[in-house]
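Entry for the shared binder. Reason: the reviewer on the internal report wants the predicted structure included alongside the sequence.
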Amino acid sequence: MLLVIACLAFIGVLVMVYHRGERQRSSFQASQSIQAAARSDKVAPAEEPTIAEMQPELRKANERSVDQVGEFTICHTGGGRNCVVDGDTVWIEGIKIRIADIDAPETHPPRCDEEARLGSRATERLAELMNLGPFDQMVQGRAKDRYGRQLRVLMRDGTSLGEQLVAEGLARRWEGARQPWC
Protein backbone atom coordinates (compact mmCIF):
# COMPACT_ATOMS: atom_id res chain seq x y z
CA MET A 1 0.00 0.00 0.00
CA LEU A 2 2.83 2.37 0.88
CA LEU A 3 4.48 1.63 -2.46
CA VAL A 4 1.25 2.49 -4.31
CA ILE A 5 0.98 5.80 -2.43
CA ALA A 6 4.63 6.60 -3.19
CA CYS A 7 4.13 5.80 -6.88
CA LEU A 8 1.01 7.98 -7.07
CA ALA A 9 2.87 10.85 -5.37
CA PHE A 10 5.74 10.47 -7.83
CA ILE A 11 3.36 10.54 -10.79
CA GLY A 12 1.67 13.62 -9.33
CA VAL A 13 5.02 15.41 -9.07
CA LEU A 14 5.86 14.53 -12.68
CA VAL A 15 2.50 15.86 -13.89
CA MET A 16 2.98 19.09 -11.91
CA VAL A 17 6.48 19.58 -13.26
CA TYR A 18 5.33 18.96 -16.82
CA HIS A 19 2.40 21.34 -16.59
CA ARG A 20 4.50 24.12 -15.10
CA GLY A 21 6.79 23.98 -18.08
CA GLU A 22 9.77 22.81 -16.07
CA ARG A 23 10.78 20.60 -18.96
CA GLN A 24 11.37 23.66 -21.11
CA ARG A 25 13.37 25.62 -18.53
CA SER A 26 17.06 25.58 -19.26
CA SER A 27 19.71 25.08 -16.64
CA PHE A 28 20.96 28.58 -17.47
CA GLN A 29 17.67 30.12 -16.36
CA ALA A 30 17.71 28.04 -13.19
CA SER A 31 21.23 29.11 -12.30
CA GLN A 32 20.35 32.74 -12.97
CA SER A 33 17.38 32.47 -10.58
CA ILE A 34 19.56 30.95 -7.88
CA GLN A 35 22.20 33.63 -8.32
CA ALA A 36 19.57 36.38 -8.17
CA ALA A 37 18.04 34.89 -5.01
CA ALA A 38 21.47 34.56 -3.43
CA ARG A 39 22.24 38.22 -4.20
CA SER A 40 19.01 39.28 -2.53
CA ASP A 41 19.77 37.14 0.55
CA LYS A 42 16.65 35.02 0.02
CA VAL A 43 18.62 31.77 0.12
CA ALA A 44 19.19 30.52 3.65
CA PRO A 45 22.74 29.42 4.37
CA ALA A 46 23.20 25.66 4.15
CA GLU A 47 24.12 23.75 7.28
CA GLU A 48 26.75 21.82 5.33
CA PRO A 49 28.59 23.13 2.29
CA THR A 50 27.35 21.87 -1.06
CA ILE A 51 29.62 19.88 -3.35
CA ALA A 52 30.00 23.01 -5.49
CA GLU A 53 31.28 24.97 -2.48
CA MET A 54 33.63 22.20 -1.37
CA GLN A 55 34.96 21.51 -4.86
CA PRO A 56 35.54 24.77 -6.73
CA GLU A 57 37.22 22.78 -9.51
CA LEU A 58 33.85 21.43 -10.68
CA ARG A 59 33.49 22.19 -14.35
CA LYS A 60 30.74 21.56 -16.83
CA ALA A 61 31.22 18.31 -18.70
CA ASN A 62 29.30 19.43 -21.76
CA GLU A 63 27.70 22.56 -23.12
CA ARG A 64 24.09 21.59 -22.40
CA SER A 65 22.06 20.21 -19.57
CA VAL A 66 20.42 16.79 -19.64
CA ASP A 67 16.70 17.30 -20.24
CA GLN A 68 15.32 13.78 -20.34
CA VAL A 69 12.42 14.26 -17.90
CA GLY A 70 10.53 11.04 -17.28
CA GLU A 71 12.76 9.05 -19.61
CA PHE A 72 15.19 7.39 -17.18
CA THR A 73 14.27 3.79 -16.41
CA ILE A 74 16.00 1.18 -14.27
CA CYS A 75 18.28 -1.21 -16.19
CA HIS A 76 20.14 -3.10 -13.43
CA THR A 77 22.73 -4.62 -15.76
CA GLY A 78 23.27 -1.53 -17.89
CA GLY A 79 23.86 -1.18 -21.58
CA GLY A 80 20.98 1.23 -22.01
CA ARG A 81 20.53 4.66 -23.44
CA ASN A 82 18.98 6.56 -20.49
CA CYS A 83 18.72 4.35 -17.44
CA VAL A 84 19.86 3.81 -13.87
CA VAL A 85 22.00 0.73 -13.16
CA ASP A 86 22.28 1.27 -9.40
CA GLY A 87 22.55 4.11 -6.88
CA ASP A 88 25.79 5.47 -8.34
CA THR A 89 25.93 4.25 -11.95
CA VAL A 90 23.77 5.43 -14.87
CA TRP A 91 23.64 5.48 -18.65
CA ILE A 92 23.03 8.91 -20.19
CA GLU A 93 22.58 9.09 -23.95
CA GLY A 94 24.36 5.73 -24.27
CA ILE A 95 27.38 6.72 -22.12
CA LYS A 96 28.11 4.89 -18.88
CA ILE A 97 28.53 7.34 -15.99
CA ARG A 98 29.77 6.72 -12.45
CA ILE A 99 28.45 9.39 -10.09
CA ALA A 100 31.72 10.74 -8.71
CA ASP A 101 30.69 12.29 -5.41
CA ILE A 102 28.97 9.28 -3.78
CA ASP A 103 29.24 5.61 -2.93
CA ALA A 104 25.91 3.75 -2.99
CA PRO A 105 25.16 0.22 -1.77
CA GLU A 106 25.86 -2.56 -4.26
CA THR A 107 22.92 -4.28 -5.92
CA HIS A 108 24.64 -6.93 -8.02
CA PRO A 109 25.68 -8.69 -6.04
CA PRO A 110 24.81 -7.25 -2.63
CA ARG A 111 26.85 -8.64 0.25
CA CYS A 112 23.93 -8.83 2.71
CA ASP A 113 20.16 -8.30 2.90
CA GLU A 114 20.51 -4.76 4.28
CA GLU A 115 22.80 -3.74 1.41
CA ALA A 116 20.32 -5.23 -1.08
CA ARG A 117 17.43 -3.29 0.50
CA LEU A 118 19.32 0.03 0.61
CA GLY A 119 20.77 -0.50 -2.87
CA SER A 120 17.32 -1.08 -4.33
CA ARG A 121 15.96 2.06 -2.64
CA ALA A 122 18.98 4.11 -3.81
CA THR A 123 18.50 2.90 -7.40
CA GLU A 124 14.80 3.79 -7.43
CA ARG A 125 15.38 7.17 -5.78
CA LEU A 126 18.15 8.11 -8.21
CA ALA A 127 15.82 7.33 -11.13
CA GLU A 128 13.16 9.55 -9.52
CA LEU A 129 15.63 12.41 -9.01
CA MET A 130 16.92 12.19 -12.57
CA ASN A 131 13.36 12.31 -13.91
CA LEU A 132 12.40 15.47 -12.00
CA GLY A 133 13.93 17.89 -14.49
CA PRO A 134 17.05 19.09 -16.26
CA PHE A 135 20.42 18.59 -14.60
CA ASP A 136 24.03 19.29 -15.50
CA GLN A 137 26.94 16.88 -15.59
CA MET A 138 30.01 18.29 -13.90
CA VAL A 139 33.57 16.96 -13.87
CA GLN A 140 35.29 16.81 -10.47
CA GLY A 141 38.95 15.95 -10.85
CA ARG A 142 39.40 12.99 -13.22
CA ALA A 143 37.01 12.63 -16.16
CA LYS A 144 37.19 8.80 -16.32
CA ASP A 145 37.75 5.95 -13.90
CA ARG A 146 39.94 2.87 -14.40
CA TYR A 147 36.99 1.00 -15.93
CA GLY A 148 36.47 3.65 -18.62
CA ARG A 149 33.30 5.08 -17.06
CA GLN A 150 32.79 8.83 -17.22
CA LEU A 151 33.08 10.34 -13.71
CA ARG A 152 30.44 13.04 -13.20
CA VAL A 153 28.65 14.93 -10.47
CA LEU A 154 24.99 15.42 -11.42
CA MET A 155 23.85 18.92 -10.44
CA ARG A 156 20.44 20.58 -10.43
CA ASP A 157 19.99 24.15 -9.23
CA GLY A 158 23.40 24.16 -7.51
CA THR A 159 22.79 20.93 -5.58
CA SER A 160 24.27 17.52 -6.27
CA LEU A 161 21.77 14.71 -6.84
CA GLY A 162 24.29 12.50 -5.05
CA GLU A 163 24.24 14.79 -2.02
CA GLN A 164 20.49 14.38 -1.92
CA LEU A 165 20.92 10.59 -1.76
CA VAL A 166 23.46 11.08 1.05
CA ALA A 167 21.03 13.33 2.95
CA GLU A 168 18.34 10.64 2.61
CA GLY A 169 20.67 7.93 3.96
CA LEU A 170 20.83 6.08 0.63
CA ALA A 171 24.49 6.79 -0.18
CA ARG A 172 27.72 8.07 1.39
CA ARG A 173 30.05 10.80 0.25
CA TRP A 174 32.84 9.30 -1.84
CA GLU A 175 35.98 9.07 0.29
CA GLY A 176 38.27 7.52 -2.33
CA ALA A 177 37.34 3.87 -1.70
CA ARG A 178 34.21 1.77 -1.25
CA GLN A 179 33.19 1.02 2.32
CA PRO A 180 31.14 -2.01 3.42
CA TRP A 181 27.38 -1.58 3.88
CA CYS A 182 26.90 -4.79 5.88
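Summary line for the report: The two ends are 28 Å apart (CA to CA).
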